[in-house]
Amino acid sequence: MGESSNIRVGIDLVRISAIAESLASFGDRFLHRVFTEAEVTYCMSAPMLVSSRLAVRFAAKEATRKALRLDGVGWRDIEVVRQPDGACDIELHGATMAKCGAGRLALSMSHEGDHATAVVIADRNRQ
Amino acid sequence: MSENAAKIRTVLKEHARLNRDADTLSDDSDLYQAGMTSHASVNVMLALEGEFDIEFPDHMLKRSVFESVGAIVSAIDELTEGR
């Protein structure tokens, strides 16, 4: 297998209003089933941005699942970690980390209007 | 239709954001092909957990577990076995 075949990409697009509806319908169950404590704390820290912050993070988790072709893993095993400079990275935990040989992951997220999106590139040539 | 299947169709109607009526789907119709997104499947999962008082373990958070009414019935039967 050539080097390029170890490069994988995943993308996801989420409606921010749909995430707001999940929050309204399921409240803490949605929050704490899908997001880690650190993600929840950060997203809830700006009341006007809660849904959009959650939405880009949900998109990032789904984009990671697609890039790594993950199935049967917990949503909280894929975490968006915010660096001091505001950049965000993907951190894998638990069984997900162990079983997928992710290599280096690169993340980009964005939101505009009612849409949030994320792209993840997995370079499985580099650890 | 089993009682569980009926409950599942009700949950799907409310949360799966399908592009057609859940009652028109057969037990093995592909719910993703019928419009359910991965985010909607999370809503379906949470609603099923509330409806049946269960929790899907991480290893069951698979696309295949939520891809049809029949697949969901099997998963719920597995999780409520012995009750």
Written overview of the protein:
The complex is a heterodimer of chains A (127) and B (83). Chain A has helices spanning 16-26, 28-34, 37-44, 50-68, 94-100; strands spanning 7-15, 78-82, 88-92, 104-112, 115-123. Chain A is of the alpha+beta class and 127 residues long. Chain A has one domain (7-123): Alpha-Beta Complex (Ribosomal Protein L22, Chain A), CATH 3.90.470.20. In chain A, the strands form two sheets. Chain A has a three-stranded antiparallel sheet with strand order 1-5-4. In chain A, helix 1 (16-26) crosses helix 2 (28-34) and helix 3 runs antiparallel to helix 4. By secondary structure, chain B is an all-alpha fold. Chain B has one domain: ACP-like (Non-ribosomal Peptide Synthetase Peptidyl Carrier Protein, Chain A, Orthogonal Bundle), CATH 1.10.1200.10. Chain B contains three helices and no strands. Chain B is globular, with a radius of gyration of 11 Å. Classes of the chains: A alpha+beta (127), B mainly alpha (83). The interface between A and B is medium-sized, with 22 and 18 residues.
Per CATH, the superfamily of chain A is 4'-phosphopantetheinyl transferase domain
CA-atom Rg of chain B in angstroms:
11 Å
Which series of helices and strands of chain A comes N to C?
A: EHHHHEEHEE
SS class of chain B = mainly alpha
User: How confident is the prediction overall: mean pLDDT of chain B?
Assistant: 93
Rg of chain A: 14 Å
Low-pLDDT stretches of chain A are: none
The total strand number of chain B stands at: 0
CATH architecture of chain A: Alpha-Beta Complex
How much helix is in the residues of chain B? 40-55%
In total, how many domains does the architecture of chain B comprise? 1
The top level CATH class name of chain A: Alpha Beta
Write the layout of secondary structure elements.
The complex is a heterodimer of chains A (127) and B (83).
Chain A (H helix, E strand, L loop, with lengths): L6 E9 H11 L1 H7 L2 H8 L5 H19 L9 E5 L5 E5 L1 H7 L3 E9 L2 E9 L4
Chain B lengths: L2 H13 L22 H15 L16 H11 L4
Helix pairs in contact in B: 1-2, 1-3
